[in-house]
């Protein structure tokens, strides 16, 4: 993969790496998850099926779309 494309992918994915702190953003219904959460679950064997992985990933995207306004960089990255 060309280096430029890798850098662009890292920039786009970076807001999704760590779970958001729902307490500090005052959104108690926010389900805390990030790509790092999925990575940990994979390493621990907790994502037993591809569907588990997909469901976690879709939750990250759903959170970002729901809790970030349209046209914001995070919303658009989804």
Q: Classify the secondary structure makeup into a structural class.
A: mainly alpha
Shape: globular
Distance between the termini: 21 Å
- Enumerate the spans where pLDDT stays under 50 for 5 or more consecutive residues: none
Helix amount, in percent?
A: 55-70%
What letter string, H or E per element, gives the SSE order?
A: HHHH
**Count of separate DSSP helical elements:** 4
The oligomeric state is: single chain
- Profile the largest sheet: none
* Proportion of residues in β-strands: under 5%
Mean pLDDT: 75
Radius of gyration, in Å, reads 14 Å
- Secondary structure tally: strands: 0
GO biological process, one term: chromatin organization
Protein name: Bromo domain-containing protein
Pfam families: Bromodomain
Keywords: Bromodomain
Topology of helices and strands:
Layout: H1 3-13, H2 35-44, H3 50-67, H4 73-77
Descriptive account of the structure:
This is Bromo domain-containing protein. Keywords: Bromodomain. The chain is mainly alpha-helical. It has a domain at 32-77. It has 4 helices and no strands. The chain has helices at 3-13, 35-44, 50-67, 73-77. The protein starts with a helix and ends with a helix.
């Amino acid at each position: 993969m060309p280096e430029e494309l890798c850098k662009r992918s890292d920039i786009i994915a970076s807001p999704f790496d760590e779970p958001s702190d729902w307490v500090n953003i005052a959104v108690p219904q926010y389900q805390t998850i990030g790509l790092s959460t999925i990575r940990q679950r994979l390493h621990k064997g907790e994502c037993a099926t591809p569907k588990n992985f997909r469901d976690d990933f879709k939750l990250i995207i759903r959170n970002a779309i729901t809790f970030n306004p349209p046209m914001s960089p995070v919303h658009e990255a989804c």
